[in-house]
Amino acid sequence: MVDLESRREGDRIVILLDPGQPVELGDLSESFSALARMYGRHYRPHGETAPKLYVTKLETGSILMEIAPYVQMLGQAVQPIDTVVIVADFTNRLWRGIKAFSGGVSEPVRLEPPSDDDARDIREFVKPLLGKKGAELGIKHARYRKTDGEKETVVEYDFDESELNRAAINIDAALAEIPLAEVTNALPDHQIKREVMLFMDQANRGPGKEKGRTGDRGVIPSISDKALPVYFRKSSVIDLKGQITRDANPMTSTFVVDVQVQSIAGELKGYIVTEVHDAIPGDPAE
Asked: Are residues 209 and 112 in the same domain?
């Protein structure tokens, strides 16, 4: 086992994930995996194996991680010579990737978006924070001084609930090849609706889809009287569509759900169910 706690010097990537409420372990694991994939794609010089990222410190409550690159040499974990460059570059790459999608359509300056692979992993990385009231993400390049062991911040970036939700919506649109200029600039509070009543108008027998063509359609009267496509956020732990179809007749029941409202150019296009709170069976005689 490598003792990293005693090595209190050098540069770190500090990640603060604050969902403001409990988060599923599966979502958290997938978030960390996405971060590792994105790192691995960009730090393989000349085909060599990239220095691995190690968590050198982890605090709970909100999730605060300190991460540093290390390589194994003679059984010892050693920071590579270009650690400062790696930490600075990856911190900036992660910030730029999120920032490219988190701004409104009307923003005069927009960063060049990352590759599709990076966009997908950024989407997965921020997933535990999406739709969570008061959620925030902090990304920091920090440095421990050799002289006194104190930590100083080199650069720090922060994203709030609105920016994170907007980034996810814009990434989904970009991956679906919808021009970003066509995506509505509505505030995320208008996009995320919590504990609304969903009435299924049509439900197919297949598993729920997160995007593409679907036979599932439903009405949320508090948003629109029109039946719209209903999608289900994928999770490695919870089958959201199964919660709707397993224990109740979806065509006669009322479901209390959280949804992400999808719209393009101000026109409602569909709902993504992110959580099912309750299923209220209808009257069998109806």
From this structure: no
Spatial separation of the C-alpha atoms in residues 37 and 208, rounded to whole Å: 26
Total number of domains in the chain = 2
201 with 63, same domain: the answer is no
Q: Which domain range does residue 55 map to?
A: 10-182
Residues 164, 59 share a domain: yes
The helix-helix angle for 25-42 and 83-102 (nearest 10°) equals 120
Report the interhelical angle of 116-125 vs 161-175 (nearest 10°): 140
pLDDT tens, 26-71?
A: 788 899 899 988 988 887 655 566 677 777 777 766 788 887 777 6
Same domain, 252 and 124: no
pTM above 0.85, yes or no: no
| The domain boundary residue, chosen from 159, 182, 205 | 182
Residue 218 and residue 253 in contact, taking contact as beta carbons nearer than 8 Å: no
C-alpha span between 122 and 2 (Å, rounded): 29
